[in-house]
Amino acid sequence: MGFFDFGTIFFLVAAVVIFFQLRNVLGRRTGSERPPFDPYTAGRTRDDAQKPENVVSLPRKRAPGEPAIDAYAAIDAFAKPDTDLNKGLRGIKDNDPAFDPKTFVDGAKMAYEMIVMAYADGDRKTLKNLLSREVYDGFVAAIGDREAKSEKIQSSFVGIDKADIVSAEMKGSEAHITLRIVSELISATRDKAGAVIDGDPETVAEVKDVWTFARDTRSRDPNWKLVATEEED
C-alpha cells in the first residue's frame, strides 16, 4: 500500500472543496436562468414565446382620465367642419368605422385608371368587379357595339391631375361618394381599316369626369363600386 505525500493530499482536499463549491453554485436552479438558444424561435421575444398561438391581443382599454381619440380627426382635416361634405363623410364614418377619406380617394384613383383602360381594351372581367350591375350593362353594351363595327380604341393613360370629393352621403346602409376627376389621356378610336374616326393618337387630352362610388356598409366586402358616371364639359 503506497502513501501520499503532503503536496498530493493538499491538492486532493482542494479539488474536493472546489467540486462542492461548484456543485452548490451550478447545480441549483434559481428560476432566473436564460432558456437555451433555439434558432427557430430566436426572432421572437420571450413574452411572445409564452403566448398561445391562437391568442389575439385586444386593443388597450383607455385609462380613466385619458382623453378619447377624435374619431373624426381625419375627416375634419380633409373637409372643413360644419360643411355638408364634412357631415356626409362623418355619416359614413359612423356606419363604417374603418373609413378614411384620403385612403378612399387613393383607391378611387386606382379604380378610375383600371376602369378607363379596361373599357378601352374591352376587358369585361375587370369591369364586372369594379362596376355596379347597371353601369356594367351600359359599358358592355358600348363595347359590344364597338366590336360589332370592328372598331378599336387605342388609349394611353397619362395620369390624374386632380381627384376631389364633391359630395358624400348615406342612402340607407349604402355609402355614396362622388368625385370630380381631372385626368390626362391619349385616346383614339379606329375603324376596321385602321383610320382614326375619333380622338387623336398623338395628343394628350384633358378629361373631366364626375363619378360616384358606393358601398354597402353592412357587407364584409370592403370594395367600392362605380354606380354613376357623368362627363363634365
Automatic annotation (TrEMBL):
<dbReference type="InterPro" id="IPR016985">
    <property type="entry name" value="UCP031890_Tim44-rel"/>
</dbReference>
<keyword id="KW-1133">Transmembrane helix</keyword>
<dbReference type="InterPro" id="IPR007379">
    <property type="entry name" value="Tim44-like_dom"/>
</dbReference>
<dbReference type="GO" id="GO:0016020">
    <property type="term" value="C:membrane"/>
</dbReference>
<comment type="similarity">
    <text>Belongs to the Tim44 family.</text>
</comment>
<feature type="transmembrane region" description="Helical">
    <location>
        <begin position="6"/>
        <end position="26"/>
    </location>
</feature>
<feature type="region of interest" description="Disordered">
    <location>
        <begin position="31"/>
        <end position="55"/>
    </location>
</feature>
<feature type="domain" description="Tim44-like">
    <location>
        <begin position="85"/>
        <end position="231"/>
    </location>
</feature>
<keyword id="KW-0472">Membrane</keyword>
<dbReference type="Pfam" id="PF04280">
    <property type="entry name" value="Tim44"/>
</dbReference>
<dbReference type="InterPro" id="IPR032710">
    <property type="entry name" value="NTF2-like_dom_sf"/>
</dbReference>
<protein>
    <submittedName>
        <fullName>Predicted lipid-binding transport protein, Tim44 family</fullName>
    </submittedName>
</protein>
<keyword id="KW-0809">Transit peptide</keyword>
<dbReference type="InterPro" id="IPR039544">
    <property type="entry name" value="Tim44-like"/>
</dbReference>
<dbReference type="GO" id="GO:0051087">
    <property type="term" value="F:protein-folding chaperone binding"/>
</dbReference>
<dbReference type="GO" id="GO:0030150">
    <property type="term" value="P:protein import into mitochondrial matrix"/>
</dbReference>
<keyword id="KW-0812">Transmembrane</keyword>
